[in-house]
Amino acid sequence: MLGVLLRDEEVREIEYLLKKELEELSTEMADDEMNHIVRRAMEERYQGLFKIMKRFTPSEQCIKYLRREYDESF
């Protein structure tokens, strides 16, 4: 386990970066013609980033980024 001290502005920057990456992944995964192997890798990345985001962002803001498959894990 690692510990990190961050200033408020650094936390906001991390939140912003995570949200942008999750939005981009979500948009790309909406492509129906995507290879299932690529889609699975993107789903795993999305899930990992979402778990990180939950540590930085209030739960009200995380709800927007929940995916159907992972609703129960929140």
Automatic annotation (TrEMBL):
<protein>
    <submittedName>
        <fullName>Uncharacterized protein</fullName>
    </submittedName>
</protein>
